[in-house]
Amino acid sequence: MKIESKFQKKKPVLSFEIYPPKRDKAIQNIDETLAILSELDPDFISVTFGAGGSHTNNQTVALAKRIKQQYGIDPLVHLTCLNYSKFEMCEMLEELKDADIDSILALRGDTNPAVEAKKDFRYASDLVKFIKQYGDFSISGACYPECHTESKNKVQDISYLKGKVDSGVQHLISQLFFDNNVFYTFQEHIQIAGMHVPVEAGIMPVINKAQIDKMVTLCGASLPEKFSRIMQKYENNKEALFDAGMAYAINQIVDLLAHDVDGIHIYTMNNPIVAKRICDGIKNLI
């Protein structure tokens, strides 16, 4: 079933994100993680796109096929376009068709100084238009409750997002955030802008200090006072920080569900312990 159709059948939709493993131990972790996630019967699992060079050694589609065939869960495949030509994108779309995968999260992708960007696609909206012309795919997009780090301001950011939705995006997944009020304000803004597509709230449990620093740098997520206090108190106690981070994420999800959000999208980091704790915390709420 295509992703947008799931929102017509139920609310809230529940989904998870994983990424292709690179090492033997990571492969074992992903199997354990998928086994736990499948117990909660998610509506779909998104698979991130391998970074950098050629798509021919990318394990994204292989993992998506595994999710569909072995676990019976619909996959949502990430596609980035900045470093790929139209010809290469056609090859990837054909690969998805051959695998009977019809749901794509269309992304520009991060700039990489080590890989020269190609000129066929400048923005995610360019990729969305290309996919729409190529075949009958369900297209999802990313959104940023606190504004994309490269946008001048929130007005420009909402304008770019509107262009992406007008190009054919049928469902949005938000970047992570730590203050639910930020997400609720963002919901109001996109409604005012005339975007009437389902929006999933993206939640990442923070379980170590390095992760916090990385996320704030990469996506510009602000840290509310309550969150900062918790992290500062337990940053030197690994076990306590893990518990505190998981509790904060679960509390976020409970509040989002109480506000009747369209869906919850959880970034699992391929960690089976994180997956199990989240599933145990919300299994009676979904």
Structural summary, described in words:
By secondary structure, the protein is an alpha/beta fold. The chain has one domain (3-283): TIM Barrel (Alpha-Beta Barrel). The protein is 49% helix and 14% strand. The chain has eleven helices and eight strands. The chain has helices spanning 3-9, 24-39, 60-71, 86-98, 124-134, 154-167, 180-192, 209-219, 225-234, 238-258, 272-282; strands at residues 13-18, 44-47, 75-80, 103-107, 138-143, 171-174, 199-203, 263-267. The protein has an eight-stranded parallel beta barrel with strand order 1-2-3-4-5-6-7-8, surrounded by five helices. Strand 3, helix 4 and strand 4 form a beta-alpha-beta unit. Helix 10 (238-258) packs across helix 11. The chain is globular. The mean pLDDT is 89. InterPro entries: FAD-linked_oxidoreductase-like, Mehydrof_redctse-like, MTHF_reductase_bac.
Strand adjacency order, main sheet: 1-2-3-4-5-6-7-8
Could you tell me the radius of gyration in angstroms? 18 Å
Low-confidence runs (pLDDT<50, min 5 residues)? none
Strand content of the residues, in percent?
5-15%
Question: What is the general shape?
Answer: globular
User: Got a strand count?
Assistant: 8
Q: Let me know the largest β-sheet.
A: 8 strands, parallel, barrel
**What count of domains describes the coordinates?**
1
Would you tell me the structural class of the helices and strands? alpha/beta
In the CATH hierarchy, the third-tier topology is known as: TIM Barrel
CATH-derived architecture: Alpha-Beta Barrel
- At the first level of CATH, the class is Alpha Beta
**Treating each run of at least 4 consecutive H or I residues as one helix, how many helices?**
11
Order of helices and strands: HEHEHEHEHEHEHEHHHEH
Helical proportion? 40-55%
Distance between the termini: 19 Å
Cofactor: FAD
EC number: 1.5.1.54
Pathway: Amino-acid biosynthesis; L-methionine biosynthesis via de novo pathway; One-carbon metabolism; tetrahydrofolate interconversion
Protein name: Methylenetetrahydrofolate reductase
